[in-house]
Write a structure and sequence with these properties.
Structural class: alpha+beta
Largest sheet: 8 strands, antiparallel
CATH superfamily of the largest domain: ATP-grasp fold, B domain
CATH architecture of the largest domain: 2-Layer Sandwich
Length: 444
């Protein structure tokens, strides 16, 4: 087992990893930018190293700075969290070259799943259901027109190196294709340095349901049930829950089997997630594979009483998977609390938190890095907290979430707490009647 792990991240996920490491008797190293010098990870890690100024490219995305921090502290492993370098093939390889274990996927696995066109081809070969679309990247707009005619409109253009909705354009008819093609490629090039685009059939009003998987170095893999992530805005998840109110035992078995096929197709090592779109007929299609821990891993932990970060670390150390295929018997919901103004188009609201009180009680969990007096920097993602509840049934979980949100006090900045309070009262949400289009008609 590792003696010391450096956490190449910040915020709540850094705190999350530090906690599990301490429970395993492993020393921790926090890295931080100058904007994060007063953060909780810096305070609670065994050691802390400043790796640069606030701008991410010179700190949390700087591979030389992070490797140097690992070497001067004698860390024998690096946990990348999510975001930043967590799915960076080069970072995984550099860690290998320096004899430091990257607690995540191997470089070749990240390469296979990180490029979405390559990932889709891999999944088709493995027998995982995929959305009809182009074979690989589109050569030009004429190639796009031929594919759109074959798979029929509406279609969606997607950046092969994409994420967060960037480089994506829905096209409803041929006369709109040229403009969508140009803008998708321009946005992809600006965001990812790669203007490669592929095409898929656009699935109308789908559910976004993902399957948690784990794989070890011996070729074993299992799934740990599903999470419904359909409540999202601009392709950013807002609320997640497990089990999905749309799920059936038969569908869970089929999706779980497909996720395991996906993991075994790349001999996946570590904890990851296979994401699917599920249509109204409960037909499901592979969307992407995330080769890292997810923001919403918490709800899976709550319903199966299983520490996924601990499993990550054990798998990276060469142990066999200790999990099995799970069916949740409890219900868990997570609300992402962002420093955003929900009454002003979710505009970011950085600044100083003047008053802070977190909810408690049975079945309530808070993952956060903020406190009264903490200043939220404007340089990073606006998520400041995750509020998680677990209960016997979905109805009880919603009632518990309402109560917890009422107790949650964050003053000094705007937050998404009012949005979540309204959502937990919404009849459609309460009925479980929602798709990824839910936020298009929801209003405060």
């Amino acid at each position: 087992m590792f003696k010391k792990i450096l956490i190449a991240n910040r915020g709540e996920i850094a705190m999350r990893v530090i906690r599990t490491c301490k429970e395993m008797g492993i020393k921790t190293v926090a890295v931080y930018s100058t904007a994060d010098k007063d953060s909780l990870p810096v305070r609670f890690a065994d050691e802390a190293v400043c790796i640069g100024p606030p701008v991410s490219s010179k700190s949390y995305l700087s591979i030389p700075n992070i490797i140097a921090a690992a070497e001067i502290t004698n860390a024998d492993a690096i946990h990348p969290g999510y975001g930043f370098l967590s799915e960076n093939e080069k970072f995984s390889r550099v860690c290998q070259e320096h004899g430091i274990k990257f607690i995540g996927a191997l470089p070749e696995q990240i390469a296979a799943m990180g490029d979405k066109a390559t990932a889709k081809a891999t999944m088709i070969k493995a027998g995982v259901p995929c959305i009809p679309g182009s074979v690989g990247l589109l050569k030009d707009v004429d190639d796009a027109k031929e594919n759109a005619t074959r798979i029929k409109y509406p279609v969606i253009l997607k950046a092969t190196a994409g994420g967060g909705g960037k480089g994506m354009r829905i096209v409803w008819k041929e006369e709109d294709l040229q403009e969508a093609w140009d803008s998708a490629r321009q946005e992809a090039a600006a965001a990812f340095g790669n203007d490669g685009v592929y095409m898929e059939k656009f699935i109308e009003e789908p559910r976004h349901i993902e399957i948690q998987i784990a794989g070890d170095q011996f070729g074993n893999a299992c799934h740990l049930s599903e999470r419904d992530c359909s409540i999202q805005r601009r392709h950013q998840k807002l609320v997640e829950e497990t089990p999905s109110p749309f799920m059936t035992p038969e569908l869970r078995d089929k999706m779980g089997e497909a996720a395991i096929k996906a993991a075994k197709a790349v001999r996946y090592e570590g904890v990851g997630t296979v994401e699917f779109l599920v249509d109204k007929n409960r037909d499901f299609y592979f969307m992407e594979m995330n080769t890292r821990i997810q923001v919403e891993h918490t709800i899976t932990e709550e319903v199966i009483n299983f520490d996924l970060v601990k499993e990550q670390i054990k798998l990276a150390a060469g142990e066999k998977i200790s999990g099995k295929n799970y069916t949740p018997i409890l219900h868990s919901i997570q609300c992402r609390i962002n420093a955003e103004d929900p009454y002003n188009d979710f505009r970011p609201s950085p600044g100083k938190i003047t008053d802070y009180h977190s909810p408690g009680g049975h079945g309530v969990r808070i993952d956060t890095h903020v406190y009264a007096g903490y200043t939220i920097p404007p340089n990073y993602d606006s998520m400041i907290s995750k509020l998680i509840v677990v209960a016997q049934t979905r109805e009880e979980a919603i009632l518990k979430m309402r109560r917890a949100l009422d107790e949650y006090i964050i003053q000094g900045v705007k937050t998404t707490i009012p949005f979540h309070q309204k959502l937990m009262q919404d009849p459609k949400f309460i009925e479980g009647d929602f798709t990824t289009k839910f936020m298009e008609t929801f209003s405060l």
